[in-house]
């Protein structure tokens, strides 16, 4: 059997398309960013993720992540895919969820 070199492995890893992030990836990212970015306790971050799971569609969740990342090209692209209400809902979530969950 042929040994795989680092270059071969690297080639295999980069050859295929990158899989889109899943909802779980988005929740994990938001939770990871919550504490340092918002200076919230773990329980407050858990509250935000619980609200996201309850209140946001997959597309709205993706938009929230783009807002948190401040990914302007991604936001612009995603806005073209969402309704105005979905975009507004994602924006309001970013603004309101931290306030609602602070101190919980």
Q: Which key phrases capture this entry?
A:
6 helices, 104 residues, disordered N terminus, mainly alpha, globular
What do these coordinates show?
This protein is mostly helical and 104 residues long. Helix content is 75%, strand content 0%. The protein is built from six helices and no strands. It has helices spanning 6-15, 23-38, 42-55, 58-69, 72-79, 84-101. Helix 2 (23-38) packs antiparallel against helix 3 (42-55), helix 3 packs antiparallel against helix 6 (84-101) and helix 4 runs antiparallel to helix 5. The longest helix is centred in the last third of the chain and has 18 residues, at 84-101. Mean pLDDT is 85; it is low at 1-19.
Question: Gist?
Answer:
The chain has 104 residues and is mainly α. It contains 6 helices and no strands.
Q: What would the average pLDDT be, to the nearest integer?
A: 85
Alpha carbon gap, first and last residue: 56 Å
Q: β content, as a range?
A: under 5%
Number of helices: 6
Report Rg. 17 Å
Poorly predicted runs = 1-19
SS class = mainly alpha
Oligomer: single chain
Overall geometric form:
globular
Strands, count: 0
Largest beta-sheet details = none
Sequence of secondary-structure elements: HHHHHH
Share in helix:
over 70%
List the helices and strands and how they pair.
Elements: H1 6-15, H2 23-38, H3 42-55, H4 58-69, H5 72-79, H6 84-101
Helix pairs in contact: 2-3, 2-4, 3-6, 4-5, 4-6
